[in-house]
Amino acid sequence: MKQISIIIFFFILPLAFADLELGFYASSCRKAESIVKQVVQKRFNRDKSITAALLRMHFHDCFVRGCDASLLIDSTKNNISEKDTGANDSVRGYDLIDDVKEAIEAACPSTVSCADIVALATRDAVALSGGPKYNIPTGRRDGLIANRDDVDLPGPNIPIGALSQFFAAKGITTEEMVTLLGAHTVGVAHCGFFASRLSSVRGKPDPTMDPALDTKLVKLCKSNSDGAAFLDQNTSFTVDNEFYKQILLKRGIMQIDQQLALDKSTSTFVSNFASNGDKFVKSFATAMIKMGKVGVLVGNEGEIRKNCRVFNKRN
């Protein structure tokens, strides 16, 4: 799984102090959240992996310019957008967002932002996967810039210290970082992201990886170099604390995941979540709500796109 300056906007016009709020569309598009849920439910019924896809999309969008749906913009002959970078080339779920947007536009034209749709769809998918049910404030606006040069996301082998600094720059604490990486409980990683840990590449066993897991992954990647492994080997489609239990047993697939259990700055959080599923569920909901507020555009900033893949035409 390819991975995750607080920006404060000041406005002078009447919407100067606008912010995200619960039930933002209660009067302007009363059915907005129910439409999102219906479309996500329909997809989830036939594809449980959509939860991991939406979580990744939400993370990768929020950690570039902020949660402004800039990731959804298609490239043009004049601009290569965020989605066409190495870090985002396997992000998927765009078609689901298109389906939601089409349904909402039919009910409430030019009212609900693509940024809010991504946040709401992710929330609903998490709940469908057995994770927490939580309310998120809405009112995000869609960004007006989507450039590949802005994408600088951490890779799977980044040291914990550097990863913590990356999250801290977004206003996310180390504990919240560990919580958010718990999203890997429903994710997968392709061989290229963990092959360097395998005995077949290293020439010797990785002391931080369970030997049985090493054997399994060596076989997988030998038969298919682009093969993928579930980051949570036990409850692969359920949002729960099993991920933490496994990395305590040296069964983390990616280096970054395993290091969470080994680094002294994060190991206590891992142990706490592994031993207390309720604590993880509550913490995950809180962290997702906070992450969804990173760098948002509100009030008169940005726009409400008619098509999530393209900016509105300017007069």
From TrEMBL:
Question: Which sites bind heme b?
Answer: H184
SUPFAM superfamilies this protein is in? Heme-dependent peroxidases (SSF48113)
Which processes are annotated in GO (biological process)?
Answer: hydrogen peroxide catabolic process; response to oxidative stress; response to stress
Residues bound to Ca(2+) 1 are D61, V64, G66, D68, S70, E82
Q: Where is the active site?
A: H60
> For this UniProt entry, which residues form the secretion signal?
1-18
The residues that hold substrate are P154
Pfam families per the record?
peroxidase
GO MF terms held by the record: heme binding; lactoperoxidase activity; metal ion binding; peroxidase activity
Q: Would you tell me the Gene Ontology cellular component terms?
A: extracellular region; plant-type cell wall
Q: Which residues form the Plant heme peroxidase family profile domain?
A: 19-312
Q: Which reaction does it catalyse?
A: 2 a phenolic donor + H2O2 = 2 a phenolic radical donor + 2 H2O
Q: What function does this protein fulfil? A: Removal of H(2)O(2), oxidation of toxic reductants, biosynthesis and degradation of lignin, suberization, auxin catabolism, response to environmental stresses such as wounding, pathogen attack and oxidative stress. These functions might be dependent on each isozyme/isoform in each plant tissue.
Annotated gene: 11439420
What domain of life does the native source organism fall in? Answer: Eukaryota
- Please give the family membership noted in the entry: Belongs to the peroxidase family. Ascorbate peroxidase subfamily.
The EC number of this protein is: 1.11.1.7
Q: Which cofactor does it need?
A: heme b; Ca(2+)
- Which protein are we looking at? Peroxidase
